[in-house]
Amino acid sequence: MIVKYVIDTNVIRGLSARSNDVDAQKHQKQCQYFWKKIKEDSNAILLIPEEVKVELDVQLLAEIPPKPNERQRILDAVNDCQIVHEKSTRGIENKLRELSATLKAKYGSRIHEECQITPQHMRVSDARILSAAYEQDGILVTRNIKDFILYLFLSEADEEVLYDTATGEYLSISTELHEAVLSDEEFSTRLEDFFEAWNQLD
Q1: Cα angle 3-34-155, degrees, rounded to a multiple of 5
Q2: Tens digit of pLDDT for each residue in 99-146?
Q3: How many whole angstroms separate alpha carbon 68 and alpha carbon 57?
Q4: 108: how many CB neighbours lie within 10 A of its CB?
Q5: What is the pLDDT of residues 136-181, one digit of tens each?
Q6: Model pLDDT, residue 115
Q7: CA 169 to CA 133: how far, in whole Å?
Q8: Segment holding 49, helix H or strand E
Q9: Where would you tag: which of 62, 85, 117, 141 has the fewest CB atoms within 10 A of its CB?
Q10: 96 near 89, Cβ under 8 Å?
Q11: What is the C-alpha separation between 172 and 193, in angstroms, rounded?
């Protein structure tokens, strides 16, 4: 069975950077471990949303002085992946951001109790990356797990869809919490609006 991994920007940067900082070195090793494991899996496909490719290009342009070796490592990592174009629209992005804000406001503390992570409301770039993962029915791989917790509620309760390179594990929540959020009237109404808008893109 083919498994698609949708890669966030920080994973490529963590994989490619070199630093004397202990935390940065730890993240690099975590990313390298993930990358090696996935590349050895013949059923795995590495995908980069177009938004991630743009972010990497902009970040490289902004680096003064440039770091040629790091740049090459980033390019090599990108070449290991397929670039996917999100079918997202501004309306879709806004609905995802509103959903994430509702999730944080109403269930942030409860999610933190279970996962020790507080969900954050999404930026536009995060919404585009999440759109790509959702469209591809892929596993979203990131270090900034707090920015994408909404993805757990776009999926079934027991699905492994959000991989945290900082821990090397999938983030999961209880079935009870999953059901509580989906049965929340405000959240469920916004979620139905998102699904309706998404289906109209086809």
Answers
A1: 40
A2: 999 999 999 999 999 999 999 999 999 999 999 999 999 999 999 999
A3: 14
A4: 18
A5: 999 999 999 999 999 999 999 989 999 999 889 999 999 999 999 9
A6: 93
A7: 18
A8: strand 44-49
A9: 62
A10: no
A11: 25
Bridge partners for 4 per DSSP:
45
Residues belonging to the chain: 202
Across 68-101, b (16+ Cβ under 10 Å) vs e yields eeeeebbeebbeebeebebebeeebbebbbbbbb
Find all residues with CB under 8 Å of 150, minimum gap 6, and list them: 96, 99, 100, 103, 119, 122, 130
- As a whole number of Å, the end-to-end CA separation of the chain is 25
State the amino acid at position 85 in one-letter form.
H
- Cis peptide upstream of residue 119 (ω within 30 degrees of 0): no
Judge contact between 160 and 139, C-beta under 8 A: yes
Structure tokens at 31: 């990313």
The answer to whether 147 and 122 have CB atoms below 8 angstroms apart is: yes
CA separation for the pair 63, 41 (Å, rounded): 34
CB hemisphere CA count around 1 (13 angstroms): 3
Consecutive H or E run containing 164: strand 162-164
pLDDT digits (tens, 9 = 90+) for 43-89: 999 999 999 999 999 998 888 777 888 889 899 999 999 999 888 89
